[in-house]
């Protein structure tokens, strides 16, 4: 039933490729545990005690609570699917509870460090240099996700109106404004691409020097390379998304506007960034208020 469930995620729910891969890996890991530990070959026959045993084994192996909770979410979705398909009569996840986790503030890069990265680094004048600079500027300048950048098509970029049309999670599309300075960088990248790279008919905006679509790993490596000059404990495309949101809020952007720009479905997902801005407000209070 795992294969049937994965097809359901991919073709009916139209989940992202990252979600599908993560669920597939989790379920295969769960199936291997059941087979080797309890000689049970069918995960749909697992009951509450066996599921709990797997989760305990994950915790004892040192897996962090957020990662265990993600696997719990996977199993909940899987067994709900089995119930709808009438494969099982009772949901074995009913008694399973998520683990308590510590709230972690999003990691972001300070404004002066972003200035160093974007304005003081001398990018190569070749196609690769133009592309690398454009990747950093676009991630920081729009807050789009890595998967959204990889999937961005040429036709979705409106240079005249200074917007990009992004296909986000659950295939929800949103329009994100782009600054005039970023438009210039995009035009410079496209000029270098058209001049130096063989055009291929995939329609993707971001390409390699051979004209193929860029992989997530390539973009991650590029971001990590240039963020190495910062003091950020994490150096990833998602850190630039956090940085985008935090800097907007720090400069007075309305939280509902930031929510829409990020493509969040609920305000709760955006409010995590207010913790960072609250720290800034507290510092201002401590410095300026007579009773601080």
Automatic annotation (TrEMBL):
Residues 104-286 form the Tyr recombinase domain. The gene is xerC. Keywords: Cell cycle, Cell division, Chromosome partition, Cytoplasm, DNA integration, DNA recombination, DNA-binding. It is found in: Cytoplasm. PROSITE patterns: CB, TYR_RECOMBINASE. Forms a cyclic heterotetrameric complex composed of two molecules of XerC and two molecules of XerD. Its main location: cytoplasm. This is Tyrosine recombinase XerC. The active site is at residues 145, 169, 238, 241, 264, 273. Belongs to the 'phage' integrase family. XerC subfamily. Site-specific tyrosine recombinase, which acts by catalyzing the cutting and rejoining of the recombining DNA molecules. The XerC-XerD complex is essential to convert dimers of the bacterial chromosome into monomers to permit their segregation at cell division. It also contributes to the segregational stability of plasmids. Residues 1-83 form the Core-binding (CB) domain. Transmembrane segments: none annotated. Pfam families: Phage_int_SAM_1 (PF02899), Phage_integrase (PF00589).
